[in-house]
Design brief:
By secondary structure, the chain is α/β, with parallel strands linked by helices. It has eleven helices and 17 strands. The strands form three sheets. The chain has a nine-stranded mixed beta sheet. The chain has a six-stranded parallel beta sheet with strand order 3-2-1-4-5-6, sandwiched between helices. A two-stranded antiparallel ribbon has the order 9-10. Helix 5 links the parallel strand 5 and strand 6.
Length: 355
């Protein structure tokens, strides 16, 4: 079967770091066309990845109309996720799209309706569903190994917002481009990961968001511009079945790269999932049985090969009708958007907010 031709929209950092390498690795995909509003970035990507300029476009509508691709990979800032995904849906093109899915619930509901009505293949890129440790944790939790679940604690810590990094006013700090800050960028991953592993939905949340650096240098060097999104987000969640969850999300964790830690506590055992405690490695540790409980002891588990997965290859498998059902869909993105918005409402109201 010939490789599926992919039109990639947005050639920024996430595309170059994750999406394009994934497409190039896959025997089932071909990087066929590129799109970006930034002419210089588009030309650079054209040269780096060997895509002729006649297959490079400045707007997504032209790519969809002219490039003859089989699917889209949407790697843009958050404010154009939904418009481009709706264009794809209107053209009957399968798509993958970066997270968070939308700027608000109404947008996400519209896209869900469109894709649902067309039975259109799609994927939302909640990347940590593809970590082997997370998938193994999911299998253990859902098989009942931990017994009745009581608590989940999720930390997602990065450091690049700290003043020492002198990070300029990127789109991720501008509300009209990103919707929310650390909450949407990192917290959406955390909310999805906890639900993915436990199988529980969110009933209500209470949140506390804040900003440490209120101005950053504009990219054009014309001075300082305002930051109007959160630098950190903490939340408590009541989940289905009485499960209690705590989330700590920040871009101001000195000494952290892309650190995640999820602790899951049940009546028969507990699990600790970690990412980046050792550089770029995901691990899973278990405490189970009377001896380990008495000794407060955890053992790091060997993760079976069957739990290893690749995000981009998973999209290829979806396009080929052989997906494993574990990738996030637009419907999952909508559920996630509702939880994110509940945290935003709560941070403003100071009250618990229903999802």
């Amino acid at each position: 079967m010939p490789a599926k031709k992919i039109g990639l929209i947005g050639v920024g950092a996430i595309a170059r770091w994750a999406h394009i390498p994934g497409i190039l690795r896959s025997p089932d995909l071909e990087l066929s066309a590129l799109c970006d509003t930034d002419a210089a970035a588009l030309k650079s990507a054209s040269q780096e990845y060997g895509i002729p300029m006649e297959r490079c476009y400045r707007n997504s509508e032209e790519l969809i109309a002219l490039a003859g691709v089989d699917a889209l990979d949407i790697c843009t800032p958050n404010d154009v996720h939904i418009p481009i995904a709706l264009q794809a849906a209107g053209a009957g093109l399968p798509f993958s799209v970066e997270k968070p899915l939308a700027m608000n619930v109404q947008q996400a509901e519209r896209l869900a309706k469109e894709t649902r009505g067309r039975s259109l293949a799609n994927m939302v890129c909640f990347s940590y569903r593809f970590k082997a440790a997370a998938r193994y944790a999911r299998a253990l939790v859902r098989s009942g190994e931990l017994g009745e679940l009581y608590h989940v604690n999720l930390r997602y810590f990065q450091a690049w917002g700290l003043p020492v990094f002198q990070t300029p006013l990127l789109w991720r700090f501008i509300g009209e481009r990103t919707g929310s800050g650390a909450l949407g960028d990192l917290g959406s991953h955390g909310l999805d990961l906890v639900s993915f592993v436990t199988g529980r939905g969110y009933e209500k949340l209470i949140g506390h968001n804040g900003t440490f650096v209120h101005e950053r240098v504009k990219l054009d060097g014309s001075g300082l511009g305002p930051v109007d999104v959160d630098d950190f987000s903490n939340a408590l969640a009541c989940m289905e079945g009485g499960l209690s969850a705590v989330f700590e999300i920040t871009r101001f964790a000195y000494g952290r790269g892309n650190y995640q830690r999820m602790e899951i506590y049940g009546s028969k055992g507990s699990l600790i999932y970690e990412l980046d405690a050792r550089p770029d490695q995901d691990t899973l540790s278990l405490c189970q049985g009377e001896a380990m409980r008495r000794g407060n002891t955890y053992v790091e588990l060997r993760i079976p090969d069957e739990y290893r997965a690749d995000q981009t290859q998973s999209f290829a498998d979806i396009l080929l009708g052989r997906g494993d059902g574990l990738s996030a869909t637009v419907e999952d993105g909508l559920v996630n958007q509702r939880a994110v918005e509940a945290v935003l409402r709560s941070a403003a109201s100071g009250q618990w907010e229903k999802v």
